Amino acid sequence: MAESTYQELKERFAPAGAELEPDVLAELQSIMRLHSINVEELWYKWESYSMKMGSDDMKLNIDTARSLKKDVQDSLERESRSKAHVLNSNKRGGATPRNVQSNGDVFGMYGNFQSPICIC
Description:
This protein is mainly alpha-helical. The chain has helices spanning 3-13, 22-35, 39-52, 62-89. Helix 2 (22-35) runs parallel beside helix 4 (62-89).
């Protein structure tokens, strides 16, 4: 991982003067890779998750990092299902059947001419 990304993660997620545990760092990196997000977006997701769980000062450890990962995945799946539902409800029905009378000719030409067709 790039040193700048590690530094950003440390600044955002590590308590003042502390280091991120290697397994927590690995989970955060995994979330960023899986969802193609940067450190800032991950931080917003963490803050949102913390508020949703009812704790503004939630401590980041391996358990909460895994819970965050699961929450991000669940919200992505909900969003995907919602979009799929909207797309399915907007689909057109099948074509309206026409009242076609069969006269034995596929092209509808039989019987439409006064004289037989001669191709010479």
